[in-house]
UniProtKB/TrEMBL annotation:
Gene3D superfamilies reported for this sequence: 1.10.150.130, Intergrase catalytic core
Keywords: DNA recombination, DNA-binding
Gene Ontology biological-process entries: DNA integration; DNA recombination
Organism: Actinomadura verrucosospora
Domain of life assignment: Bacteria
Composition bias, Polar residues: 308-317
Protein name: Integrase family protein
GO molecular-function terms, A-Z: DNA binding
Record domain Core-binding (CB): where: 1-87
Biased composition (Basic residues): 293-305
Region called Disordered, residue ranges: 285-330
Amino acid sequence: MTVGEWLTHWPATRTGAATTISGHAGHVRLYLAPYLGTVVLAELSVAHLQAMFARIAREHRARGVPLTAATVNRIRATLRTALNAALRRGLISGNPAARIELPTARRPRAVVWTAERVRHWQRTGERPAVAVWTAAQTAEFLDAIKDHPLYAAYHLIALRGLRRGEAVGLRWCDVDLEHGVAVISQQIQQHQGLLAVCPPKTAGSARVIALDRTTVTALRAHRVSQRKERKQAGEGYQDSELKVVQDMLGHSSIVLTADTCTSVLPEVAHRAAEMTAAHVMKARGVVPGTNRTCRRTPSRKKRRRSMETASRSSASTVHPARQLGRPQRR
């Protein structure tokens, strides 16, 4: 059996997330099968793999699109997984993909979109691998999309850090607006043009998150809008109703109770959520938990100048003795 024959057979034995399987199939099609397909599986060695990665690197550099260390390591990970499956079946005696040395893939460090970094991007087109918005930039974005039908989802992602698939996979039965919590128990993934409901990305991704007042307000508004859409659409509206889910699961209640909230989600999580929201809402000029704009308080320096101006303008109407008792600041 050749490596190519095994790589053709191997995907049929796979189980797991659709996106992971699709990524592995892409690595097989673009790299592993073309470079290793004719090699006898039992004779595959570290030297074969070193030659393959060297050739891949040369060809990509020649095209002006060099592969990153992270991509190279992902290709190796796909091959290692395939060869581990062959090892379990006794088709090979060892896994050369586990012994080859490759450049270490360093995770890019996130940077903030400072004013200077924004100007550099606008001037050169260069952008960091990972960059995050400031509170003011986040507030500006939320202001710009406040009338968008999916505003609540963007608000939730911006303030509570949900992944895109987690946000669109969130159901009303996973949210308790009364106690300000949400349970991340599933995500929606897109694969070959089709949507699929999948478990969260990792075990740690299944979690309970605290919702600040502004997020609760946004979700309540979205629910009102959603009910209007349901009423207008009539029978054509597609939704998974809470009662249907309750019947399927056999639970009398599938939202978190107050006792569960107390034991699972400490009060500190709610305080942290409120502090995050307040930071962004302050930059936005909105009172947290409401849609009201807040009146900006003048700085101490401006207040002092205002008092001095008022004092000078009213000096002629004040009794001379009081004027002598209050010398003007210089």
